[in-house]
Amino acid sequence: MSIDKVLVIIFGLIGVIFTYWFFLMKKEKEVEAVGEVDIKVSGGYSPEVISVPLGKTTRINFLRTDPTDCLSEVVLGDFKIKRQLPLNEKVTVEITPQKAGAFGYSCAMNMYHGKIIVK
Amino acid sequence: MAEIKKTFPIKGMYCASCVRVLEKSLSRVEGISNCVVNLTTETASVTYDPKKVTDNDLVSAVANVGYKAGLESELKTEDQQKIEKEKELKDLRNKVIISLFLGALILWGSFPGLMNIAPLFLINSWVQLLLAIPVQFWAGWEFYRATIPALRHRTANMDTLVAIGTTVAFSYSAVVTIFPQLVESIGVKPEPYFDVSTIIIGLILLGRYFEAKAKAGTSEAIKKLIGLQAKTARVVRNGSEVDIPIDQVVIGDTIRVRPGEKISVDGEILEGQSSIDESMVTGESIPVDKVKGDLVIGATINKTGTFLYKATKVGADTMLSQIIKLVQEAQASKAPIQRLADLISSYFVPVVLILAIATFVVWYVIGPAPSFLYGLLNMVAVLIIACPCAMGLATPTAIMVGTGIGANKGILIKDAQSLETAHKINTVIFDKTGTLTKGKPEVTDVVPFVIARRNATKQSSKSRLPRELKFARNDVLVLAASLEKGSEHSLAEAIVNKAEQEALNFSKVEAFKAIPGHGVEGIVDGRKVVLGNRKLLEKNDVDFTPIIRIIEQLENEGKTVMMLTVDGKLAGLIAVADTIKETAKEGVEALYKKGIEVVMITGDNQRTANAIAKKLGIKRVLAEVLPDQKEAEVKKIQTEGKKVAMVGDGINDAPALAAADVGIAMGTGTDVAIESAGITLINKDLTSVVSAIELSKKTMRTIKLNLFWAFGYNIILIPVAMGALYPFFHILLNPIFASVAMASSSISVVSNSLLLKRVKL
Terminal CA-to-CA distance of chain A, rounded, Å? Predict the structure, then answer.
């Protein structure tokens, strides 16, 4: 096998491992929301993972600064909430979770994801 | 003029000092008597004289100190959003036209066969590079704009795939153009692929354009509901009638509605009568006659009369607002079937990236010459063809259309889960009273003794009856109604109503006495009159055996029979029954036709229950079930392996509704959010039970087809793009065709959801 092929295999493997590590092995820091939390919407949600108390109302303020159309709507399916996120405008949603567990939220097309952990 | 209070959002507040500044500025406006600004809710509440202060004054006062008052009406915001959306679509359309035009020129100058007839300058790689730059970095900028922040978050989406794919094709072509010797030195003919990068961008943007247009159609139903809201109301204030904006109407306001006008908010008629078209809110197609004391629903149309009514529900509490909220919540909820799509889409893009790398490596290492080019183009094809959007759109678009269709027909679905479960229903349990029947007893038969005895004995007995007992039908009804006027029993109300409907004159009753569980008695025109059941007559030693056959016959029909005696002699009988709703029989038949078992549950005795069930054609009856036992009966049927829908009024039978797989509540009044029910039928039409099940079946079929297409598309075409067919048939997927397939996959999913609109319920 020629050297170029060997190099392509090695770089290919590195590329595969890097892709796996970069996208699938990231550890998101969980941010504890006490009454209120601000989530910046740009290329995803920051913070991506928030923890909220069970049975108490938490205000989540979304602020979208990314013009990507995909992010223009946020869906908190388990809480039956879907909101338009106009660019550079704070949109507040209130949740009062009655069940503990992890609940995902996403953009309307299910491309960008976040998580709400109810404790 | 009275002052009004208005609360509106303020944008741009950050701290407590903002509150002080804003309050000060607003208080300076002449006509504002009170002003409170809340930092937490970011709102201002002002009390002012509407003659002196306008919305513009409030907006200016807020703007003067550097903030923005959100005083635009709902409609204005909607319009604003629509304008912005239209502008975005127009920009997108321009990008599509320019990209495809430039792409077509490049294709003309580079595609074998076409390039022979192309102008010479188009064949020049440098010209192609110049034409490709605006497509890549102007039209295609939105792919980079989405990719860069996403990569910062270590996430990737469809834009990432398109950005990487087109960048690879563009960069390679640029290198070929600028350094052709470099490419030649590795044994590859220096041919640029600007046509690939530009046409892919043009076609994907074209797909996005059509997708955006189609997606707008999925939310039509909710827009239609919002558009129903009245804008103004003609309110009687201080003796004069004034037109005021709907948001200024308060509970207790008296509102005038003239023929052809829209009713502004929910309320109760105080004066006048009319026929009202409620179809736009409840789905009920026939106009409903309303008189004093009846409830009217906001956003419905007054057809004929003029009337005054009192506002009982305003703002978010009106029936229409509740419907809008319910539909919005349902459209935001997640169907269980979506979970798999959610799980896959969270891994999808990284997996496609890995497959693209593997494609390049495999083609480079074991592919035919020129292996580098094969590897590159197939890698681009893999990146372009993968379509996670179709998976993301498959379920929510169908749910949006399905719940919207339901709302238009008066079938309110609370969440996607109820919609999903309803298609599995094979048994429907109906609560009898108030659901299959009107829940209000009515007089069904008034039989004078002479007729009753003739019918019972099948012979003429006219001659043998004493003259004083030859009561006519109306005499029986008048005597019974006169007696019952003093009673509070529900059967009494039915008899009194019947006499009133027939405009009969009541007689004066003395020494009235109610005998609980038996009947009533009193003195009318000096004669002792008794109205009661068998027990009362037996107690009074009245022989009713001559008419026992007719009594039994009526009782077998599910009616309650009361006998009237005058001075101890039988004068006639009155039968009262809860009447069956007009749509009940049709609703039950429709369910049987679909192969769904129908069960009736009631607290009535077996005989009455059987009589009603027979009339409706219901084969399975659960009689003498106490209200608190209904839940257990539902569970018992579920243990038979049945998927059960319980249909009730949502009030007395809430536990049974909640225990069923799907609870279906018949709407009562103007409350639509019935907690225990997954589906509420606000059109009060029992044929809608089968319609709801049908809607669920059709929606689920659409979702399954969408998911099948979205998954199938990726499962089949990604391997084809990788070159899986090449070893057998020498078939490879050109990246341009990959972009055509990718653009059409999302459109096909959304279009398939829109086809649901054709469903006839």
Answer: 57
